[in-house]
Fold this sequence. Notes:
By secondary structure, chain A is mostly beta strands.
Amino acid sequence: xxxxxxxxxxxxxxxxxxxxxxxxxxxxxxxxxxxxxxxxxxxxxxxxxxxxxxxxxxxxxxxxxxxxxxxxxxxxxxxxxxxxxxxxxxxxxxxxxxxxxxxxxxxxxxxxxxxxxxxxxxxxxxxxxxxxxxxxxxxxxxxxxxxxxxxxxxxxxxxxxxxxxxxxxxxxxxxxxxxxxxxxxxxxxxxxxxxxxxxxxxxxxxxxxxxxxxxxxxxxxxxxxxxxxxxxxxxxxxxxxxxxxxxxxxxxxxxxxxxxxxxxxxxxxxxxxxxxxxxxxxxxxxxxxxxxxxxxxxxxxxxxxxxxxxxxxxxxxxxxxxxxxxxxxxxxxxxxxxxxxxxxxxxxxxxxxxxxxxxxxxxxxxxxxxxxxxxxxxxxxxxxxxx
Amino acid sequence: xxxxxxxxxxxxxxxxxxxxxxxxxxxxxxxxxxxxxxxxxxxxxxxxxxxxxxxxxxxxxxxxxxxxxxxxxxxxxxxxxxxxxxxxxxxxxxxxxxxxxxxxxxxxxxxxxxxxxxxxxxxxxxxxxxxxxxxxxxxxxxxxxxxxxxxxxxxxxxxxxxxxxxxxxxxxxxxxxxxxxxxxxxxxxxxxxxxxxxxxxxxxxxxxxxxxxxxxxxxxxxxxxxxxxxxxxxxxxxxxxxxxxxxxxxxxxxxxxxxxxxxxxxxxxx
Lengths: 387, 270
């Protein structure tokens, strides 16, 4: 069949139209699928925040930002240039003159706290550091999502490893006797602070650096994703099925368990204790106050805040504050008398810090990233990563 | 609304299946995909039958006659076509309605798998906040049924894969990982697209279809290559089940794959 010029032109136009439709369809499908997956790197967690005497460090995304606590000025940034393979969310730990920071790849960095220069790097882990490391008596205890706790000396030399059966997202705590580690394998473990090499066994690689058995372990039934609180010889830990436990630090015995009359939502907050009352909040935004001795509720009913709560509590003089995803810091005392909330644009995911009269709030998706406030909410200084 | 109607029920069903199938998320994805495909099978069957009827009509003498008669009058052509559809008992929109109905289910299934596989704090927070006790209470008579909160974090290891990471198989002597599932997804997507593409259309339509047949499998393969292997597993199983569905409905003729290709490659006559 011989096609006329006009028909050929029409055919070409139609072909173009069909190809455009096909290309559009492919684009729509790819956008739909990509939109569903999200960006794993930058949206998988929330900022970590730690304050020492002179320095506040924010772990957020591709860099650590060390700020002068007096005026919020940037003291140093690590790494100096952003690297898409290095992502920080875990709060840093201060160890003498070092800042210890774990990243989302598998590296633990020790930086000079005064200038941010890298002192050493440990790359022996196999997964991300979600929790902050813990420092005590010259040793760094670094929990990792690869189901291990790595213990290093101040020079970054691996001392020993303790293996759990689940990812470790909680910062360990310690007294003078034991180190306590809460794990997503449902257990809370007590370990010695140090082990002689004769007490260690060989791991899969044949290296004799493994702790075989903890001093004790206690099954809490479900995963622990928040930091436990250690106070007066007892551990307080919340679980993702909404139960709060008080556990003896010396024996691991469960002293009491609070689960409420109605099913309460998961606990992501580190509890705080004030005047013998344990405060914690649940994912649905309710604040609970329990008698630390008995585990009985102090209030008639939990206090609703109207917004989800992830961040741990902060003690501000004789009150307790909980940051919400709605951007408020709800302040309440043990008699359930509330103070005016402090509000800023954005969501509070990171546990606020109150130190030397300054209240530090870290806001996600807000105008500023860090706010240093007085108790009435007046700003000492603010910081955003663009500054 | 979307979360309450689709995502929450899907996530809780996935967790229940995970619980009842030996706590392997890989098996849970497979079983859940099979169940969803089985539930939506009547819709797919209807779609395939309607689509086949429309394709057959294009060879009908009466249809060809109408095309010829009203080739310069689109309004009259449309009217005549509708009358012919009515006469032959064909509902042209019956083939796209089931597709539209399936779309939220497919997107919901896809999103649920992503959310359930989360291994970072924000992802697990979102997952835990969607857990409801209703479904597990309903199946509490099964001894193995556990409180769904106890299942977190999920076991993401299946065969050689960490389902939260992209799939790569490392073979001694080869310096790079082979994306086995991505290759499988490309092949099965290609075959599936070939089978569902309408045949016998005009040259221009065939050009567009040919483009889709090449780029869609590559696009799906790219997703399977770069996203977590749990999603790649879902794509692969979903493709295999679709091929089985076409086979059950008698629409799989392997020779068609090559036959259509020949037609596509054929240059316009001069």
